[in-house]
Amino acid sequence: DGGITQSPKYLFRKEGQNVTLSCEQNLNHDAMYWYRQDPGQGLRLIYYSQIVNDFQKGDIAEGYSVSREKKESFPLTVTSAQKNPTAFYLCASSRTSSSSYEQYFGPGTRLTVT
Amino acid sequence: SQKIEQNSEALNIQEGKTATLTCNYTNYSPAYLQWYRQDPGRGPVFLLLIRENEKEKRKERLKVTFDTTLKQSLFHITASQPADSATYLCALVNRLAFGKGNQVVVIP
């Protein structure tokens, strides 16, 4: 059963703690992305990676870090430097050769920081 | 900076009618524009891509138009059904930028 998995679905943390969100795909896609979605707002790009061991900052990278050591995995760390970390986080992947440039999204992780 | 605008008000529509959503963009001339569907608490699902040289694209009951002069795309759901109730997002592929989405509620 191919797709993208994100875990956990709900995550609760205390302010000041770093937290890592998991994203795994078995679609053999080269590119992976992290977005943040807040109520009433669209998806905002945090980081993306088009190849293993390489990634680029998106529009709102401050307070976040990523790694891409394996093609299948693109974990996102929300650091204590992120001022407002509570949000719905979405991971996506795509084939760089796709004619539709379709992004496949995971089910999301809802992070609550108190 | 890049701006994508979608109507923030929910569109309530009677079952069987056509729902029409608008996506406007500024400061960029995209070669491609995508539409996604998002259900509450879930990730978006890709629906359609339209290229700048395509005026119209259809998929089943969905139709998308792309007017690069007006910098606008229209998304139509014909013969709408309650199962079409969701939020629909437009996206500029080259910029990895998404609109806020437009909620559609189809009333039986």
Main β-sheet of chain A: number of strands, strand sense, barrel status?
Answer: 7 strands, mixed
Q: Total number of helical segments of chain B?
A: 0
Helix/strand order of chain B, N-terminal first: EEEEEEEEEEE
In whole angstroms, how far apart are the ends of chain B?
Answer: 41 Å
Question: Given the helix and strand composition of chain B, which structural class is it?
Answer: mainly beta
Most extensive protein-chain contact, per-chain counts: A-B, 25 and 20 residues
Report the radius of gyration of chain A as a whole number of Å.
13 Å
Q: Report the span from N to C terminus of chain A.
A: 36 Å
> Measured on Cα atoms, how large is the radius of gyration of chain B?
13 Å
Number of helices of chain A: 0
Overall strand count of chain A: 11
Folded structure, characterized:
The complex is a heterodimer of chains A (114) and B (108). Chain A is built from no helices and eleven strands. Chain A starts with a strand and ends with a strand. Chain A is 0% helix and 49% strand. Chain B is mainly beta and 108 residues long. Chain B is built from no helices and eleven strands. Chain B has strands at 3-6, 11-14, 19-26, 32-38, 45-51, 56-59, 62-67, 72-77, 86-92, 97-98, 102-107. The chains are: A mainly beta (114), B mainly beta (108). Chain A binds chain B through residues 4, 33, 35, 40-45, 48, 58-59, 88, 90, 92, 100-108, 110, and chain B through 4, 6, 8, 32, 34, 41-46, 49, 89, 93, 96-101.
